[in-house]
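Researcher: Going back to the complex we discussed earlier. I've cleaned up the inputs and rechecked each line, so this should be the final set. Can you rerun the prediction on the complete assembly and write out the structure?
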Amino acid sequence: MAAIKNAATVAGLVGGALAAGSVQAVDLPEDRAETMYHLYDGGGVIAQGPAVLIRKSMLDRVSLSGSYYVDAVSNASIDVVTTASKFKETRNQGGLGLDYVVRDTLIHVSGSKSTEPDYQASTISVDLTQDVFGGMTTVALGFSKANDKVGEHGTPGWLDSARHWQYRLGLTQILTPRWTASANLESINDEGLLGSPYRLARVFGTFVHENDPRTRESKALKLSATGDITPEGANNRRSFRADYRYYWDTWGVRGHTLELGYNRDLAPGWLLESSLRYYRQNHALFYSDNAPQQTLYFSRNRELSTMHDFGPAVTVSYTLRSVPGKYDVKLSGSYQFIDFHFADYTVGDSGKAYSYHASVFNTVLSATF
Amino acid sequence: MRMIRSLVAVALASTLALVAATAAAATPATNAAAPDFTLRGADGRNVRLDELRGQVVLVNFWATWCGPCREEMPRLDTLYQKYHKSGFVLLGVNVDDDPRTALATAAKLNVSFPVLLDTDKKVSKLYDLNTMPSTVVIDRDGKMRFLTRGFHAGTERDYEQQIRGLLKE
Amino acid sequence: MRLLRPVPRLACLLASAGATFVLAGCAFKPIEPWVKPYERERLAHPVMKAALNDLPSRQQDHVYTVREGSRGATGVQGGGCGCN
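Model: Rerun complete. Updated structure for the full complex:
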């Protein structure tokens, strides 16, 4: 099929690129180990769990990585409690990756599998990174393919499936000794059961099972710039980052994301990362809080409504032990607050527009060696 | 969708073409005389390249913020220990903005070869460096014979071959 | 439900043209790299990274992907999940 043909094209071109040589050296990612505890609490949903990541280089040309992520969810969100009942579920995701440097191209191949009682997602990815133009520009190309098996509680076996194709193109450019800019384009195509077997939509005031289109094509373009804004002579480095992402898809959703970041060395061994994020989207074509007419596709998925969210995030990291050239151990804690507002999703008999806020927290112990 | 696929294909093909072209364009001018320079070392004394004529000199340009550079240093130290009594000199030219960081890192990496400070980047410009790290091997007559850009596993074996070859001359 | 608007196609074309131009320019080297490798010290400092650790970015990306209609171009390689 088209995806396989494209994968073959990519592979052929990769093979060609390997034969040539270049000027700059592209690096293997550094060896590191991370363990994290994460917690999300908002809108009646609590999701938490541990996660671990290990990356180790071998033979100076290859880096192997493995990760495991556990998401234990307790869901008592507004749509769950009004149309069903609170439930608990655990999702496990494991992944393996391989990074390989050939001449001056970095090749990354990875696979991951996410398992929960009623859903299984398997993904494989290939990414190529190349420094060009004396290292001033970095070009990255990527492809991912995912196969999902969709099930339903109480029904044995899998009832449906979904497939996803992702194409990525990224360009990073060094502008000055202090500023870099980048552009990232990602196209995602989905096919299959893209909605939820449980979620209900509302048509003429009655709750019915939703019906989403079985295909979706989306594109996202993100532009960002990062700069070192440390005043001359100052010891503590500071940086400023601005990102803007524009998203559009065949479901009619258009989303704007704006993020501003400020990072700063606080004192020797202490690093502060802070950011502010604003997101806004308009509703999907077939979305309605209470559809006034029967249409082929209809959904009351909050995720597809006219909504916006905003909030700050802060991360503080502390270097516990550092032996340059040998290892470096850091502990970090992060807190983020997000305020969600929905313009055309209402709750209760009064039909009040829904809003909620969420707290996102994580703590990480990381070591590079 | 088709647009994105052709976009990816075009970008990949262009990368391939460019990579092939830059490979050809990037061949260094070897056998030219190594530009002379004088730099201050860690001990405060000046070292002048021309005064080292008659010996085989390896000049390695490095920085504390460059990962491959730090990886390379211990291997260069091994080479230095092995050959410095046979008429071989290894100079580690650092290009950090802050010389104190450079000297601290060199001490922690425990290198025994001379570390020279090119804080104002004059020598880097003189040698037209376009990669970090870069290594120039100079023969007994002061001519640049080998230029290695970047560092990969096994590069130190290439250096050893080059040094042995030049020491025999 | 095909709604590919003229604006997105233009964005794709621009990105493609931009990429090819940059890459072609490198092949013929009409412009020399103006920030030499030895001048990139500030850019290599950890304060310039978007995120110090990998795992928190995954959590963050997951939080947004599950609760918002947008996805992609974040730099985080996603795995799927049944969180639609």
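Model: Worth noting: Chain B touches chain A at residues 1, 4-5, 7-9, 11-13, 15-16, 18-20, 22-23, 26, 67-68, 70, 104-105, 108-109, 130-131, 149-154 (CB under 8 Å).
Researcher: Good, that matches what I expected from the previous run.
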